[in-house]
């Protein structure tokens, strides 16, 4: 029993150590965004670089104000929110319908389609980036939100996740609905979707984080800087002279906060739930 407690304590200490290790860059970024460039240079490499200067709380937001006065960061923040929401809603709609069809209907070549999905999951988006760009360019969709969103909306991985989850929904629910005269669309919207909130939230969060952090594709698809999302626009802070490190950290902090908020407030919605709810 004592040996078990020692092992458990060591595991907890190890997890705490790794947590602190991974939090260090984020803490340093946030703290540096509240200090002057002189303070950052003076304290770098010391423990003080991770501690906010509480004697100058009133000046914590100065780097943010200076950054917004130099750059139209509000526009880029709006761009990121708009692009991410379009991709999330489009992805949930398209992938859930495809996954539901594969899980529910007896469609031709279902096994081959499922096998193709598994093969496509192996290939990352970056491996076909050039080919997709050529197609988008031929469709005259460069510099448009649809040119950015369309390649991200359809996802073999997300379709497969939806398919696996929908297969777990008891057939008794849909059979009872059919007997009551419900259509396939009504069963999908009024039975399948309410039961499948965990998978919708999980995929929604994954898609949101992926689209929010995406850098290469927006950089390729947009040639007008006013259309850049935050992930690309924050690089402007590193390229526009004079370069102020505290303003760069302020931009990175603003870029990071929405991701943290999504995880904090949406975590409870992605907990495993029993898909057999409704069976009596």
Automatic annotation (TrEMBL):
<dbReference type="GO" id="GO:0005886">
    <property type="term" value="C:plasma membrane"/>
</dbReference>
<feature type="transmembrane region" description="Helical">
    <location>
        <begin position="81"/>
        <end position="103"/>
    </location>
</feature>
<dbReference type="InterPro" id="IPR000515">
    <property type="entry name" value="MetI-like"/>
</dbReference>
<keyword id="KW-0472">Membrane</keyword>
<keyword id="KW-0813">Transport</keyword>
<keyword id="KW-0812">Transmembrane</keyword>
<comment type="similarity">
    <text>Belongs to the binding-protein-dependent transport system permease family.</text>
</comment>
<feature type="transmembrane region" description="Helical">
    <location>
        <begin position="115"/>
        <end position="136"/>
    </location>
</feature>
<protein>
    <submittedName>
        <fullName>Carbohydrate ABC transporter permease</fullName>
    </submittedName>
</protein>
<feature type="transmembrane region" description="Helical">
    <location>
        <begin position="244"/>
        <end position="266"/>
    </location>
</feature>
<feature type="transmembrane region" description="Helical">
    <location>
        <begin position="12"/>
        <end position="31"/>
    </location>
</feature>
<keyword id="KW-1003">Cell membrane</keyword>
<dbReference type="InterPro" id="IPR035906">
    <property type="entry name" value="MetI-like_sf"/>
</dbReference>
<feature type="transmembrane region" description="Helical">
    <location>
        <begin position="187"/>
        <end position="212"/>
    </location>
</feature>
<dbReference type="Pfam" id="PF00528">
    <property type="entry name" value="BPD_transp_1"/>
</dbReference>
<feature type="transmembrane region" description="Helical">
    <location>
        <begin position="148"/>
        <end position="166"/>
    </location>
</feature>
<dbReference type="GO" id="GO:0055085">
    <property type="term" value="P:transmembrane transport"/>
</dbReference>
<keyword id="KW-1133">Transmembrane helix</keyword>
